[in-house]
Amino acid sequence: MKTFKFLLGTAILLLLQSNYIFAQGCSDAGFCTVNSFQPNSNDSIKSYHNQIKTGIFFGKADNSISVFGNYVEYNRQLGDKLGIDAKLTTLAQNGNDISSFGLSDLFLNANYKAGNSLKFTLGAKIPLSDAGNSNNNLPLPMDYQSSLGTFDLILGVGYEFKKIQLVAALQQPLTQNDNQFLVSQYPASSELRGFLSTNKFQRSGDVLLRVSYPLMINSKIRLTPSILPIYHLKNDRFTNQNNVEQEIKNSEGLTLNGNVYLDYEINQRNGIQLNMGVPFLVRKSRPDGLTRSFIANVEYRIKF
After folding, report:
1. Are the CB atoms for 192 and 65 separated by under 8 Å?
2. pTM, whole model, 2 decimals?
3. Could you report the per-residue pLDDT of 170-181, keeping only the tens digit for each?
């Protein structure tokens, strides 16, 4: 256990030192923000059956883009074993004299507690945008879309052992989006010539493993470091200007993120959380627009 705590402490140090690296982000687009996949989610609702959470986040993305978003989430406990979650998200991007904003996704999940330490999650990510944003009648890359535009299946399992919290999950697209961005549509002087083409984008799935360990500072404050590897299962694909489908090389592979959660319990019903995350390891090609060098999230929750 001492070794495990040392490794997590080292991860925090790396987290604070590595904000210049880019990797796949998750706090504003992915399944790692699902309530049951978050650290300490077993503590979300104890004496109460309902919880509402709202939060805002800010991040720095690739290609000189800043991202800002917010969300509202409802958690309902239906007895001792079954719970449901609903989460609505938005996203805004700004950079290279281009700004965009829109609804992102609706997450719907059911959680089943099989034992004191074991839980399962089944859910879906429902897109509220088709990833077809344009500027001056030209399609924009995924970096300026408020959603991946895919309807995704979400499966997960969580297990707790001696306070070590483990989560494994799959997010698999069942549909694809309507993005039509090709770099060849833009002049050579355009900043967008450096982006990856995603016309008729075919995005593959992701799997994650989260390992976290809560540390109680006092009766009201808890610090939880977390390591989050995400593996993109295979190379994505797009259709070029000649209507030929091609692989996006090096878009398959591992990214490794670190998160630190700081929770402050105002009282039994109210709490505030600060969540910060940066990457340690990157995929070479990330056409989905989830690149983040740094992201911070502030959340308020109330139970009733």
Report:
1. no
2. 0.89
3. 999 999 999 999
